[in-house]
Amino acid sequence: MKVCSKFGLLLLMFTLLLVSSAFGKIVPNNEAVEGLKVENVPHDDGGGLMLSWKPLPKEKRIIEYRIYRGYTPDSLFYIGKIPVDAKMGVAADTMKYVDQGWTFFVDATSRAKLKHEKGQKKGTKGAEVLFRTVPRDMKVYGPMMDHYRILVVIPDKEYMYHTKMKEFTDIDSNEDGTVDTTSTILAGMKLEQLKYILTKLTVGKEYYYAIQALNMNRSASPLSEIASGQTTDDPPEKLKEFYAVAVTDKKQMQFEWSLPVFTDDQKQFNIYLYDEFDDQHLIFTRPDAYPYTPQTNAIVPYDSIAARFDAFNPANMKWYKFNIGEQDRQDQETLAKDEPIPAESITSAILPKPPVHFTVKDQPNDKGDQLQVYFGYPYYGLSKLTYNDAFTKLTVNYFISENSMYEVTRLILTINDTTKTEKTEYVLDNKLEFKVNWDHTQPMEIKGTFVCKHKGQEPLPDDFAITHTFRFDPEMQVVIIDYPPNEQMKEQIDYYYQVYRINHTSEVYRYAKELSFREREYVDKIAYETVQFRGTPRFSLDKKLLYFSTYLSVVNYKDQYPFYTQAIYLDQLKQQDEEIRAEIAELQKELETVTDKEEIEKIGNRIALYTDYIEDKPEIVKEANQLKSDKERMKMLYKAHCTNIRSFEYYIRKTDGQGHFIDTPVYTAPNGEQYIFPKQNWFNNDEIITLVAVLLFAALVFFMIKAARKGKRLYIRPIAGIQEIDNAIGRATEMGRPILFVPGLSSISDVATLAGLAILSKVAKKAAEYDTRILVPCRDFIVLPIAQEIVKEAHYEAGRPDTYDKNSVFFITQAQFAFVAGVNGIMIREKTATNFYMGMFWAESLLMTETGSATGAIQIAGTDAVNQLPFFITTCDYTLIGEELYAASAYLSKQPLILGTLKAQDYMKLLIVITVVLGTILSTVHLTFFMNWFPDK
Fold this sequence. Notes:
This protein is of the alpha+beta class. The chain has 21 helices and 48 strands.
């Protein structure tokens, strides 16, 4: 024990010496962070505060700054940290942390009880006010929810099928001392059913912050001074770009603008017209698409402008100016331009040509989570051009953009040198070499035409070609592509494509993707809905339940109900209908006493709206409401909900970003549907060739095993390393020295380890027959008992159970080079005559085999580690290369199951080689059909 204690003390001193030499002297962490300030984040929705403070000196060896927050100064909870390099410190004079957006609050895995933060010295401020993360104790987190904005994330299945209908009663105390109660049907859930709860700062609420630094010894500094800040809902930020274009022959205005950085507080965009008297008129409004990217452009017909501004006269467009305002949810608005801008008057002749053959379809061979959007003719571009010194050889690196309508099979390139050199690419490997006669002082053109597969679509126009211009720059000594661009390329380069989509429960299009002029296809990811989002829940401490509103958006039903929602419980639906009917009755009574026309019209509109909501419903809702079971009704509504939120209609806008754009019509499928739904596919047809190969291989394995069991002799190529195993064991027996067998350094899950253990079985049996000692050092603790059992069984099979020594198979260590040191020591001490290395090896291979070679032992190695094979081949007498390691077990055992599998593999490899050779020959003579049978990846 004294020796161990002294050794431990020496080890501790050595560790401290290393640490001090690496980091220098550690200054005590007794200095608090200073200069903490809390400021409002501008242009947001009042949900962000920015912290700043002065970092501690690098001599303190700080590894992280911890941030604590609370709505009172006496209860601060850990919310995040900023890691710091302990050696380098912080170079800046100020550190910043932004507390913004939705942050984690609590979930079912949170701590059970409220606990103070660790590492706080008694009597300090930190020991009194700092707490760890919020616990899952409702007594703690329940009241805290009143001080934050709450977003609850609930798994779909839990919300739809495992909630319990509960009646929640609100109790309100009146000024006269009476009590009012209101009962509401809600969905009751336990915290364990939720995914998690998120929080966001509340507008106008004061929050308190403190910072604490931890050094590399995990010692905490004194707590900083507690600083506070209050969030404000600021007006939106100013849009940087806004363009107004009047297309006179189409009688419409086209507007385009940029998006702000902060988009979570957008409510809508408003476009204003200013007349000759500088009076402002609202001519266009579009709601935001939060949380998705909204549209960045709009078309406003003259008739629509005239409906809002009676005096509008498009003939006097020069009188008018335009501006756009971004409005937030507090109805604060910021205009993009300090001064309104005039409109650019154009005709549609200068607008871009619309993309042709716009198509949307279900992506084939997928899991029902993708839609394919494609358009236009194929495109090829030049990625790189290289040349020789005499400018007589030009290497062209190109790329092709295609789509499902026009799949390119051949590319024909023509260079306009003196010989008009033309070459056809049958195998599209993105590289082609030309022999040219190029006057490199002049620009040169290369024209590309296509040959495409025909799938019933219109063929490419006869004159369709893409021409690139390139020139040699003598100063940079490189070839510059598309300089200057020709007229055909200019129209493509100046414009890009915007893909817009809207699902069957939305009211506004979303900006799905921006495509460059080179792209012709976009695969839209349609994710499956997995969660439901709900706002601040009510809670009951007695029942330990959280209560959520119960609704589900079903479908975009007429423009009147863009988010048509339904209660998920029948009793709740009946309660709502009764409340609406009671409201209608009250309005009808009120209507009898009102005489003002405007008030009568207003009440009549409300009655009509309520009546319409009760009587006019989507068919799926009517059908679901006829069901008597809540479970069946929810199942039907949820299925409709999932279908509608994943059904999209699309259109493409081609634009230059400055108001010059043109739209495709909304895509309509051949069956008349505009909303396209992604469908699941049972099979991936692109992998049929793989299925055929698997079935063929399975058949080969079956017949080879059957043949082996019938006694047919299956030829296996002799492997020198395996044939010499008997001689190597015999040599060890003659010399009276032990055998060393290393089954690799990997775990039992590695195939090479399993192959090595199979060889160990045969080597151990032969060693037992010769009564030769075998040593098996192991690195993996799972491999150890398996190897022990293999060696033990080998001795029993050899009829020598008495010679089995359980200590001959032993564990050394899991440390890689420590294990090698132990094995090398065994070789030297035991003077092993034969060394086997069978399995997976890494950088240690040469260290072991060099030692074995120095002791004069015969060494036989086998591994599938390509990087280690050169070392084994150099230092060992025999080496099993790659798959020879796997063949060794079949060679040694002669078992029909293993022999048949091995022969089946050999025949399959032969078939693959024949396929490669055949494909190469056919491709060489420009017959690519065989190559195209196989998938690209």
